[in-house]
Amino acid sequence: MSELEQQPAVRKTQKVGRVVSDKMDKTVVVAVDYLKPHPLYRKIIRRTSKFHAHDEENACKTGDVVRIEETRPLSRTKRWRVIEIVQRGEE
Length: 91
Hints:
It is flat and about 50 Å long. The protein has one domain (12-87): CATH 2.40.50.140. The chain is mainly β and 91 residues long. A 5-stranded mixed β-barrel has the order 1-2-3-5-4. Helices cover 4% and strands 54% of the residues. It has one helix at residues 3-6, and strands spanning 14-24, 27-37, 44-54, 65-70, 78-87. It contains 1 helix and 5 strands.
């Protein structure tokens, strides 16, 4: 076997977040919350990051909880793809 065949498959980063915007075609904005201690005071503070994710079927709606996976650049801002809808949001 060659050297390339022996390398293990690369695991892509996955995140779970809520859809905050679905106004674009085949694109959703997903907000991912995480907790982080303050560097000096050590109080736990909540931080939010927003990611543009590709939604091929336009299935996601605002409020849904989705799992996204890192992928190749699909546009200037899209580097993530929606893998599954974990929970539907209330309408």
